[in-house]
Design goal:
The structure is a single chain. With about 425 residues, the protein is mostly helical. It has 18 helices and 6 strands. Strand 4 (about 65) and strand 5 form a beta hairpin. The chain binds acetyl coenzyme *A. Acetyl coenzyme *A binds next to helix 17.
């Protein structure tokens, strides 16, 4: 847990006519929380909050977001500034180290990451064993987990040098692991990384180059990719980051913790929504662009259908990431002179939904996943790879949270409690007496 400001005020709670005082803690942006960590030892009661809707699992100094005002800042810097003025590796450094790097620090960081982009040759052989149609998120989590079998000398979470080399290896190798999973699905040869190239250039080349012809790296794609990775880079205690912290809290190594985070991100209610969103938009196009029909389906409580890319647990006004991405969609498609029916349907869907009382009253707005697919498509990234791109973007955030937790003097294994609702004690019935 990072530093919290102590607040002189306390919260009072009366249980079984006994009054208990609970400390109130306050963050640097005046967010307040009631510290219930000693409630059970004092009273025998626990708090219950299914889905952690109202529960802070930790305090953290990495990312601040205000869902009502649509604010997102990494280490105090607004996402709009970072997306416009940094490249992704600079943002990785900021998230992990807490400060923007000097030129010298950035050069050293980049150089170290470049040195580690290749995969062990034996690891390349894994790809032969996966089915051709394997989902790339499944490959990603498996291969990241398998890194712990190749680097057994650097798995100790308490050794800063081992942690640093593992961080650099992960940042360097994830794009290679990701690009290989795509090459596997397309049947093309795996392309080795080129360490003369920068992070996004290298990834695009590994994705799209083939040995038989030259590959031109489009600078507009590089700009768009850098921006997308930056806006995905952290989002405080979301489902996958909480998973990384949860697994890491048991002192599992960094590779194992990140592999678990990738699995959590895959879910369609989380990072998998970008793939689900494009599939939904394609379905609407195939259905004569009948946007109204899908809005009606999403409102129908007898139907499980939801508008993918809409709604967010925290943002109840607008998602600042969606605004940045939509702006990039406009610029990129215009520059490339692409008329993408998907973008048109997305914009119409947004307009219809935002003027509908169902969505307005529930504060449902487009989230980060609503427009990102349009850019991925323009770059040529296949739909199944969308969540993989999200994972590459989110990696520095996961790492920063994992490291922050390990550096905290108050670190504990994460172990929630429950209210048991099953049978009370019963007498055992031997098999022959059961009816
Ligand atoms: N379409 C239609 N109705 C919706 C949608 C949606 N996309 N999202 C929420 N609602 C409705 C719910 O049915 C519910 O209505 P009710 O009050 O009448 O019961 C109300 O809005 C509140 O929804 P909850 O599910 O309680 O909100 P929660 O905060 O738990 O869920 C979530 C947030 C999971 C993101 C949800 O909005 C959703 O399923 N969205 C679609 C999937 C998606 O885009 N996920 C990506 C999120 S961003 C990310 O993880 C990177």
């Amino acid at each position: 847990m990072s530093d919290t400001l102590t607040n002189d005020s306390t919260a009072k709670i009366i249980l079984d006519s006994t009054e208990i005082e609970l400390p109130v803690i306050e963050g640097s942006e005046n967010e307040k929380g009631i510290d219930v960590s000693r409630l059970r030892s004092q009273t025998g009661y626990i708090t219950v909050d299914e889905g952690f809707v109202n529960t802070g699992s930790t305090s953290s100094a990495i990312t601040y977001l205000d869902g009502e005002k649509g604010i997102l800042r990494y280490r105090g810097y607004p996402i709009e500034d970072l997306a416009q003025r940094c490249d992704f590796v600079e943002v990785c450094y900021l998230l992990i180290h807490g400060e923007l790097p000097t030129e010298q620090e950035l050069d050293g960081f980049r150089a170290s990451i470049r040195r580690h982009t290749m995969l062990h040759e034996d690891m390349r052989d894994f790809y032969k064993g996966f089915p051709r149609d394997a989902h790339p998120m499944a490959i990603l989590s498996s291969v990241v987990g398998a890194l712990s079998t190749f680097y057994q000398d650097s798995l100790n979470p308490s050794d800063p040098e081992q942690v640093e080399i593992s961080i650099h290896r992960l940042l360097a190798k994830l794009p290679t692991i990701a690009a290989y999973s795509y090459k596997k699905s397309s049947g093309q040869p795996l392309v080795y990384p080129d360490n003369d190239l920068k992070y996004c250039e290298n990834f695009l080349r590994m994705m799209f180059a083939v040995p038989s012809e030259p590959y031109h790296i489009d600078p507009d794609f590089v700009t768009a990719l850098n921006m997308l990775l930056i806006v995905h880079a952290d989002h405080e205690q979301n489902c996958s980051t909480s998973t990384v912290r949860m697994v890491g809290s048991a002192n599992a190594n960094l590779f194992a913790s990140i592999s678990a985070g990738i699995c959590a991100l895959w879910g369609p209610l989380h990072g998998g929504a970008n793939e689900a969103c494009v599939n939904m938009l394609n379905k609407i196009i195939a259905d004569d662009g009948n946007v109204e029909k899908y809005v009606a389906m999403a409102k129908d409580k007898t139907n499980n259908f939801r508008l993918m890319g809409f709604g967010h647990r925290v943002y109840k006004n607008f998602d600042p990431r969606a605004t940045i991405i939509k702006g990039m969609c406009d610029r990129l498609l215009e520059k490339m002179q692409i008329d993408d029916p998907l973008f048109d349907v997305a914009k119409r869907l947004e307009e219809v939904a935002l003027n509908d009382d169902y969505f307005v009253s529930r504060k449902l707005y487009p989230n980060v996943d609503f427009y990102s697919g349009v850019i991925y498509r323009a770059i040529g990234i296949p739909v199944q790879m969308f969540t993989v791109l999200f994972a590459i973007g989110r990696l520095p955030g996961w790492i920063a949270h994992w490291a922050e937790m390990h550096q905290s003097p108050s670190k504990k294994i994460c172990r929630p409690r429950q209210i048991y609702t099953g049978e009370c004690v019963r007498e055992f019935v031997p098999l022959e007496n059961r009816s």
